[in-house]
Amino acid sequence: MLAWEEMQAEGLEANAVTYGCMLDACVKCGHLEKALQIFAIMRQRGLHRNTILYATLIKGFAKSKDPLAAKNLYREMRAERVPCNVVVFNSLIDACVRACDLQGAAEVLQEMTATNVRPDLITFSTLIKGYCSNGELSKAMRLQEELQARQLECDEIVYNSLLEGCVKAGNLQLGLSMFQEMKNKRVRPSPVTFSILVKLLSRAGRLDLAVHLVSKEMRQMYDVPPTRMVWSCLVTCCLKARDLTRAVMALELLDSDCAALGTGRISMYAAVIEGSITSGEVSTALQLVDWAYSRAPPEDARVGLSMDLLKRVFETAGLRGAEAEAQETLDTVGPRIGEHVRGALEDVLMRSKGRLNLDDMGYKGSAKIARSQSSFAPTGDAVDHAA
Protein backbone atom coordinates (compact mmCIF):
# COMPACT_ATOMS: atom_id res chain seq x y z
CA MET A 1 0.00 0.00 0.00
CA LEU A 2 2.86 2.38 0.82
CA ALA A 3 4.51 1.64 -2.53
CA TRP A 4 1.21 2.37 -4.30
CA GLU A 5 0.80 5.69 -2.50
CA GLU A 6 4.41 6.59 -3.29
CA MET A 7 3.80 5.86 -6.99
CA GLN A 8 0.80 8.15 -6.98
CA ALA A 9 2.71 10.86 -5.13
CA GLU A 10 5.50 10.67 -7.72
CA GLY A 11 2.97 10.89 -10.55
CA LEU A 12 3.97 7.50 -11.94
CA GLU A 13 1.32 5.82 -14.07
CA ALA A 14 0.53 2.18 -13.33
CA ASN A 15 0.10 -0.36 -16.10
CA ALA A 16 -2.41 -3.22 -16.23
CA VAL A 17 -0.06 -5.61 -14.41
CA THR A 18 0.57 -3.17 -11.55
CA TYR A 19 -3.13 -2.48 -11.20
CA GLY A 20 -3.85 -6.20 -11.13
CA CYS A 21 -1.25 -6.86 -8.44
CA MET A 22 -2.57 -4.01 -6.32
CA LEU A 23 -6.14 -5.23 -6.73
CA ASP A 24 -5.17 -8.74 -5.62
CA ALA A 25 -3.21 -7.43 -2.63
CA CYS A 26 -6.14 -5.30 -1.45
CA VAL A 27 -8.59 -8.20 -1.64
CA LYS A 28 -6.25 -10.59 0.17
CA CYS A 29 -5.68 -8.06 2.94
CA GLY A 30 -9.37 -7.32 3.33
CA HIS A 31 -9.29 -3.81 1.80
CA LEU A 32 -12.21 -4.36 -0.55
CA GLU A 33 -13.20 -0.69 -0.74
CA LYS A 34 -9.69 0.25 -1.89
CA ALA A 35 -9.79 -2.56 -4.44
CA LEU A 36 -13.06 -1.20 -5.84
CA GLN A 37 -11.56 2.28 -6.09
CA ILE A 38 -8.64 0.90 -8.08
CA PHE A 39 -11.00 -1.09 -10.30
CA ALA A 40 -13.02 2.06 -10.98
CA ILE A 41 -9.83 3.76 -12.21
CA MET A 42 -9.08 0.75 -14.41
CA ARG A 43 -12.61 0.90 -15.80
CA GLN A 44 -12.12 4.56 -16.69
CA ARG A 45 -8.91 3.68 -18.51
CA GLY A 46 -10.42 0.69 -20.25
CA LEU A 47 -8.11 -1.78 -18.49
CA HIS A 48 -10.80 -3.71 -16.63
CA ARG A 49 -11.90 -6.31 -19.20
CA ASN A 50 -10.00 -9.21 -17.68
CA THR A 51 -11.37 -12.46 -16.22
CA ILE A 52 -8.79 -12.62 -13.42
CA LEU A 53 -9.57 -9.09 -12.24
CA TYR A 54 -13.29 -9.78 -12.00
CA ALA A 55 -12.66 -13.14 -10.31
CA THR A 56 -10.46 -11.42 -7.74
CA LEU A 57 -13.14 -8.89 -6.85
CA ILE A 58 -15.83 -11.58 -6.69
CA LYS A 59 -13.61 -13.47 -4.23
CA GLY A 60 -13.47 -10.28 -2.17
CA PHE A 61 -17.25 -10.09 -2.07
CA ALA A 62 -17.35 -13.77 -1.13
CA LYS A 63 -15.09 -13.09 1.85
CA SER A 64 -17.37 -10.26 2.93
CA LYS A 65 -20.48 -12.48 2.47
CA ASP A 66 -22.03 -10.22 -0.14
CA PRO A 67 -23.46 -12.46 -2.89
CA LEU A 68 -25.58 -9.65 -4.37
CA ALA A 69 -22.51 -7.52 -5.14
CA ALA A 70 -20.71 -10.60 -6.48
CA LYS A 71 -23.61 -11.37 -8.84
CA ASN A 72 -23.72 -7.75 -10.01
CA LEU A 73 -20.07 -8.03 -11.00
CA TYR A 74 -20.85 -11.26 -12.84
CA ARG A 75 -23.63 -9.50 -14.78
CA GLU A 76 -21.19 -6.72 -15.63
CA MET A 77 -18.75 -9.34 -16.91
CA ARG A 78 -21.41 -10.75 -19.21
CA ALA A 79 -22.35 -7.27 -20.42
CA GLU A 80 -18.70 -6.43 -21.11
CA ARG A 81 -18.26 -9.80 -22.87
CA VAL A 82 -15.52 -10.86 -20.44
CA PRO A 83 -15.15 -14.68 -20.47
CA CYS A 84 -16.28 -16.44 -17.28
CA ASN A 85 -14.25 -19.43 -16.14
CA VAL A 86 -14.62 -22.02 -13.37
CA VAL A 87 -12.84 -19.76 -10.87
CA VAL A 88 -15.46 -17.04 -11.37
CA PHE A 89 -18.36 -19.45 -10.86
CA ASN A 90 -16.72 -21.12 -7.87
CA SER A 91 -16.24 -17.72 -6.26
CA LEU A 92 -19.88 -16.86 -6.91
CA ILE A 93 -20.98 -20.14 -5.30
CA ASP A 94 -18.67 -19.48 -2.36
CA ALA A 95 -20.20 -16.02 -1.90
CA CYS A 96 -23.68 -17.56 -1.76
CA VAL A 97 -22.67 -20.38 0.58
CA ARG A 98 -20.93 -18.02 3.01
CA ALA A 99 -24.12 -15.95 3.14
CA CYS A 100 -26.22 -19.13 3.62
CA ASP A 101 -27.95 -18.48 0.28
CA LEU A 102 -28.01 -22.09 -0.90
CA GLN A 103 -30.78 -21.45 -3.40
CA GLY A 104 -28.59 -18.78 -4.98
CA ALA A 105 -25.65 -21.20 -5.01
CA ALA A 106 -27.78 -23.80 -6.81
CA GLU A 107 -28.81 -21.19 -9.38
CA VAL A 108 -25.15 -20.34 -10.02
CA LEU A 109 -24.46 -24.03 -10.63
CA GLN A 110 -27.28 -24.11 -13.17
CA GLU A 111 -25.90 -20.98 -14.85
CA MET A 112 -22.46 -22.58 -14.89
CA THR A 113 -23.79 -25.64 -16.67
CA ALA A 114 -25.81 -23.50 -19.10
CA THR A 115 -22.67 -21.60 -20.13
CA ASN A 116 -20.74 -24.84 -20.72
CA VAL A 117 -18.30 -24.28 -17.87
CA ARG A 118 -17.52 -27.68 -16.36
CA PRO A 119 -17.85 -27.83 -12.53
CA ASP A 120 -14.72 -29.10 -10.78
CA LEU A 121 -14.03 -30.62 -7.36
CA ILE A 122 -13.97 -27.20 -5.71
CA THR A 123 -17.44 -26.46 -7.09
CA PHE A 124 -18.93 -29.59 -5.53
CA SER A 125 -16.87 -29.30 -2.35
CA THR A 126 -18.15 -25.77 -1.69
CA LEU A 127 -21.77 -26.76 -2.31
CA ILE A 128 -21.52 -29.92 -0.21
CA LYS A 129 -20.06 -27.97 2.69
CA GLY A 130 -22.90 -25.45 2.41
CA TYR A 131 -25.63 -28.08 2.45
CA CYS A 132 -24.03 -29.99 5.32
CA SER A 133 -23.65 -26.84 7.39
CA ASN A 134 -27.29 -26.05 6.75
CA GLY A 135 -28.44 -29.51 7.84
CA GLU A 136 -29.43 -30.60 4.32
CA LEU A 137 -27.49 -33.85 4.30
CA SER A 138 -29.61 -35.55 1.65
CA LYS A 139 -28.83 -32.79 -0.88
CA ALA A 140 -25.14 -33.04 -0.03
CA MET A 141 -25.22 -36.79 -0.62
CA ARG A 142 -26.86 -36.29 -4.02
CA LEU A 143 -24.12 -33.85 -4.95
CA GLN A 144 -21.52 -36.42 -3.94
CA GLU A 145 -23.17 -38.90 -6.30
CA GLU A 146 -23.12 -36.33 -9.11
CA LEU A 147 -19.48 -35.57 -8.35
CA GLN A 148 -18.55 -39.22 -8.73
CA ALA A 149 -20.71 -39.59 -11.83
CA ARG A 150 -18.55 -36.87 -13.43
CA GLN A 151 -15.46 -39.01 -12.75
CA LEU A 152 -14.27 -36.72 -9.97
CA GLU A 153 -12.84 -38.15 -6.76
CA CYS A 154 -13.78 -36.95 -3.29
CA ASP A 155 -10.86 -35.59 -1.30
CA GLU A 156 -10.43 -35.26 2.45
CA ILE A 157 -12.20 -31.89 2.48
CA VAL A 158 -15.33 -33.34 0.87
CA TYR A 159 -15.40 -36.33 3.22
CA ASN A 160 -14.89 -34.08 6.24
CA SER A 161 -17.84 -31.94 5.15
CA LEU A 162 -20.03 -35.03 4.74
CA LEU A 163 -18.95 -36.31 8.15
CA GLU A 164 -19.84 -32.93 9.69
CA GLY A 165 -23.21 -33.23 8.00
CA CYS A 166 -23.68 -36.64 9.62
CA VAL A 167 -22.82 -35.17 13.02
CA LYS A 168 -25.38 -32.41 12.53
CA ALA A 169 -28.00 -34.95 11.45
CA GLY A 170 -27.07 -37.40 14.22
CA ASN A 171 -26.61 -40.13 11.59
CA LEU A 172 -23.93 -42.41 13.03
CA GLN A 173 -24.28 -45.22 10.52
CA LEU A 174 -24.00 -42.97 7.47
CA GLY A 175 -21.01 -41.22 9.03
CA LEU A 176 -19.25 -44.53 9.63
CA SER A 177 -20.09 -45.57 6.08
CA MET A 178 -18.50 -42.35 4.77
CA PHE A 179 -15.37 -42.96 6.83
CA GLN A 180 -15.16 -46.54 5.53
CA GLU A 181 -15.51 -45.27 1.96
CA MET A 182 -12.78 -42.76 2.69
CA LYS A 183 -10.48 -45.59 3.80
CA ASN A 184 -11.43 -47.79 0.86
CA LYS A 185 -10.49 -45.01 -1.56
CA ARG A 186 -7.21 -44.47 0.27
CA VAL A 187 -8.00 -40.89 1.22
CA ARG A 188 -5.80 -40.23 4.22
CA PRO A 189 -7.74 -38.88 7.23
CA SER A 190 -6.33 -35.89 9.07
CA PRO A 191 -6.67 -34.72 12.68
CA VAL A 192 -9.68 -32.71 11.48
CA THR A 193 -11.31 -35.95 10.31
CA PHE A 194 -10.77 -37.58 13.69
CA SER A 195 -12.11 -34.55 15.55
CA ILE A 196 -15.33 -34.92 13.55
CA LEU A 197 -15.43 -38.67 14.27
CA VAL A 198 -15.08 -37.93 17.99
CA LYS A 199 -18.13 -35.66 17.78
CA LEU A 200 -20.01 -38.28 15.77
CA LEU A 201 -19.32 -41.07 18.29
CA SER A 202 -20.01 -38.79 21.23
CA ARG A 203 -23.36 -37.70 19.85
CA ALA A 204 -24.29 -41.37 19.45
CA GLY A 205 -23.46 -42.01 23.10
CA ARG A 206 -20.22 -43.90 22.37
CA LEU A 207 -17.69 -41.83 24.25
CA ASP A 208 -15.89 -45.06 25.16
CA LEU A 209 -15.11 -45.60 21.47
CA ALA A 210 -14.21 -41.94 21.01
CA VAL A 211 -11.62 -42.19 23.80
CA HIS A 212 -10.23 -45.40 22.33
CA LEU A 213 -10.08 -43.85 18.86
CA VAL A 214 -8.00 -40.92 20.08
CA SER A 215 -5.81 -42.70 22.61
CA LYS A 216 -5.02 -45.83 20.57
CA GLU A 217 -6.27 -46.10 17.02
CA MET A 218 -5.26 -42.75 15.55
CA ARG A 219 -1.59 -43.49 16.01
CA GLN A 220 -1.58 -47.29 15.81
CA MET A 221 -3.99 -47.87 12.92
CA TYR A 222 -3.82 -44.65 10.91
CA ASP A 223 -0.40 -43.24 11.80
CA VAL A 224 -1.97 -39.89 12.69
CA PRO A 225 -0.81 -38.49 16.05
CA PRO A 226 -3.62 -36.80 18.01
CA THR A 227 -3.17 -33.05 17.97
CA ARG A 228 -4.23 -30.48 20.53
CA MET A 229 -7.37 -29.88 18.46
CA VAL A 230 -8.37 -33.56 18.70
CA TRP A 231 -7.75 -33.74 22.45
CA SER A 232 -9.67 -30.52 22.99
CA CYS A 233 -12.60 -31.90 20.99
CA LEU A 234 -12.59 -35.09 23.07
CA VAL A 235 -12.51 -33.17 26.37
CA THR A 236 -15.32 -30.89 25.18
CA CYS A 237 -17.48 -33.85 24.13
CA CYS A 238 -16.95 -35.52 27.52
CA LEU A 239 -18.00 -32.37 29.34
CA LYS A 240 -21.05 -31.87 27.13
CA ALA A 241 -22.07 -35.45 27.92
CA ARG A 242 -21.47 -34.71 31.62
CA ASP A 243 -19.05 -37.60 31.75
CA LEU A 244 -16.53 -36.13 34.15
CA THR A 245 -14.73 -39.44 34.63
CA ARG A 246 -13.83 -39.69 30.95
CA ALA A 247 -12.97 -36.00 30.78
CA VAL A 248 -10.42 -36.54 33.55
CA MET A 249 -9.13 -39.65 31.82
CA ALA A 250 -8.72 -37.66 28.61
CA LEU A 251 -6.46 -35.23 30.50
CA GLU A 252 -4.39 -38.13 31.82
CA LEU A 253 -4.01 -39.48 28.30
CA LEU A 254 -3.23 -36.01 27.00
CA ASP A 255 -0.37 -35.58 29.44
CA SER A 256 1.03 -39.03 28.71
CA ASP A 257 0.88 -38.25 24.98
CA CYS A 258 2.53 -34.82 25.43
CA ALA A 259 0.32 -33.56 22.60
CA ALA A 260 -0.57 -30.14 24.01
CA LEU A 261 1.60 -27.53 25.62
CA GLY A 262 1.16 -24.01 26.91
CA THR A 263 -2.24 -22.35 26.88
CA GLY A 264 -3.81 -25.23 24.96
CA ARG A 265 -3.14 -27.73 27.72
CA ILE A 266 -4.04 -25.42 30.57
CA SER A 267 -7.30 -24.36 28.90
CA MET A 268 -8.40 -28.00 28.75
CA TYR A 269 -7.58 -28.43 32.43
CA ALA A 270 -9.51 -25.25 33.21
CA ALA A 271 -12.58 -26.55 31.34
CA VAL A 272 -12.63 -29.83 33.27
CA ILE A 273 -12.01 -28.05 36.58
CA GLU A 274 -14.98 -25.80 35.80
CA GLY A 275 -17.06 -28.90 35.09
CA SER A 276 -15.93 -30.45 38.37
CA ILE A 277 -16.97 -27.40 40.37
CA THR A 278 -20.33 -27.28 38.60
CA SER A 279 -20.90 -30.97 39.37
CA GLY A 280 -19.91 -30.55 43.01
CA GLU A 281 -16.84 -32.76 42.55
CA VAL A 282 -14.50 -30.78 44.79
CA SER A 283 -11.94 -33.56 45.25
CA THR A 284 -11.70 -33.93 41.49
CA ALA A 285 -11.23 -30.19 41.03
CA LEU A 286 -8.44 -30.12 43.64
CA GLN A 287 -6.74 -33.15 42.11
CA LEU A 288 -6.81 -31.51 38.70
CA VAL A 289 -5.29 -28.32 40.09
CA ASP A 290 -2.47 -30.49 41.39
CA TRP A 291 -2.02 -32.23 38.03
CA ALA A 292 -2.20 -28.98 36.07
CA TYR A 293 1.01 -27.90 37.77
CA SER A 294 2.77 -31.09 38.84
CA ARG A 295 2.45 -32.76 35.44
CA ALA A 296 3.24 -29.67 33.39
CA PRO A 297 6.35 -29.99 31.20
CA PRO A 298 9.30 -27.72 32.08
CA GLU A 299 8.56 -25.36 29.18
CA ASP A 300 5.11 -24.70 30.68
CA ALA A 301 6.46 -23.57 34.04
CA ARG A 302 5.03 -20.06 33.57
CA VAL A 303 1.67 -21.15 32.18
CA GLY A 304 -0.91 -21.58 34.92
CA LEU A 305 -4.59 -21.54 35.75
CA SER A 306 -6.28 -18.18 36.11
CA MET A 307 -6.41 -16.65 39.57
CA ASP A 308 -10.19 -16.36 39.28
CA LEU A 309 -10.58 -20.10 38.68
CA LEU A 310 -8.18 -21.00 41.49
CA LYS A 311 -10.09 -18.79 43.91
CA ARG A 312 -13.37 -20.46 43.00
CA VAL A 313 -11.87 -23.93 43.49
CA PHE A 314 -10.58 -23.13 46.97
CA GLU A 315 -13.65 -21.15 47.93
CA THR A 316 -15.83 -24.13 46.97
CA ALA A 317 -13.53 -26.45 48.90
CA GLY A 318 -13.97 -24.32 52.00
CA LEU A 319 -17.74 -24.17 51.58
CA ARG A 320 -17.93 -27.93 51.16
CA GLY A 321 -15.79 -28.82 54.17
CA ALA A 322 -12.82 -30.01 52.12
CA GLU A 323 -10.34 -27.59 53.66
CA ALA A 324 -7.87 -30.33 54.69
CA GLU A 325 -7.72 -31.68 51.15
CA ALA A 326 -7.47 -28.15 49.77
CA GLN A 327 -4.58 -27.33 52.12
CA GLU A 328 -2.80 -30.50 50.99
CA THR A 329 -3.18 -29.37 47.37
CA LEU A 330 -1.79 -25.95 48.27
CA ASP A 331 1.20 -27.57 49.94
CA THR A 332 1.85 -29.56 46.77
CA VAL A 333 1.48 -26.78 44.20
CA GLY A 334 2.77 -23.98 46.44
CA PRO A 335 6.33 -23.93 45.04
CA ARG A 336 4.92 -23.66 41.49
CA ILE A 337 2.34 -20.93 42.04
CA GLY A 338 4.46 -18.71 44.28
CA GLU A 339 4.04 -17.46 47.81
CA HIS A 340 1.85 -14.51 46.86
CA VAL A 341 -0.74 -16.65 45.05
CA ARG A 342 -0.58 -19.33 47.73
CA GLY A 343 -1.22 -16.77 50.47
CA ALA A 344 -4.20 -15.35 48.59
CA LEU A 345 -5.70 -18.81 48.13
CA GLU A 346 -5.19 -19.73 51.77
CA ASP A 347 -7.02 -16.54 52.69
CA VAL A 348 -9.92 -17.49 50.36
CA LEU A 349 -10.02 -20.97 51.89
CA MET A 350 -10.12 -19.68 55.47
CA ARG A 351 -12.84 -17.09 54.75
CA SER A 352 -15.10 -19.60 53.02
CA LYS A 353 -14.59 -22.36 55.56
CA GLY A 354 -17.80 -23.52 57.17
CA ARG A 355 -20.04 -20.81 55.68
CA LEU A 356 -22.60 -23.27 54.35
CA ASN A 357 -24.41 -26.16 55.98
CA LEU A 358 -23.34 -29.25 54.05
CA ASP A 359 -26.41 -31.24 55.05
CA ASP A 360 -28.75 -28.59 53.69
CA MET A 361 -26.90 -28.68 50.38
CA GLY A 362 -27.24 -32.44 50.15
CA TYR A 363 -23.55 -32.74 49.36
CA LYS A 364 -22.50 -36.35 49.11
CA GLY A 365 -18.83 -36.00 48.43
CA SER A 366 -16.79 -36.34 45.28
CA ALA A 367 -16.44 -39.25 42.96
CA LYS A 368 -13.00 -40.72 42.87
CA ILE A 369 -11.00 -40.11 39.75
CA ALA A 370 -10.87 -43.21 37.60
CA ARG A 371 -7.25 -44.03 37.01
CA SER A 372 -7.71 -47.23 35.06
CA GLN A 373 -8.07 -46.92 31.31
CA SER A 374 -8.80 -50.59 30.70
CA SER A 375 -12.58 -50.35 31.08
CA PHE A 376 -12.72 -47.80 28.26
CA ALA A 377 -10.36 -49.55 25.85
CA PRO A 378 -12.26 -51.92 23.55
CA THR A 379 -10.13 -54.08 21.33
CA GLY A 380 -10.13 -53.71 17.56
CA ASP A 381 -11.42 -50.83 15.48
CA ALA A 382 -13.61 -48.33 17.35
CA VAL A 383 -15.45 -47.57 14.12
CA ASP A 384 -16.25 -51.27 13.66
CA HIS A 385 -17.49 -51.48 17.25
CA ALA A 386 -19.80 -48.53 16.69
CA ALA A 387 -21.18 -50.08 13.53
Automatic annotation (TrEMBL):
PPR repeats lie at residues 15-49, 50-84, 85-119, 120-154, 155-189, 190-225. Residues 18-171 form the PROP1-like PPR domain. Keywords: Repeat. InterPro entries: PPR/CCM1_RNA-binding (IPR051222), PPR_rpt (IPR002885), PROP1-like_PPR_dom (IPR033443), TPR-like_helical_dom_sf (IPR011990). This is PROP1-like PPR domain-containing protein. It comes from Effrenium voratum. The lineage of its organism: Eukaryota, Sar, Alveolata, Dinophyceae, Suessiales.
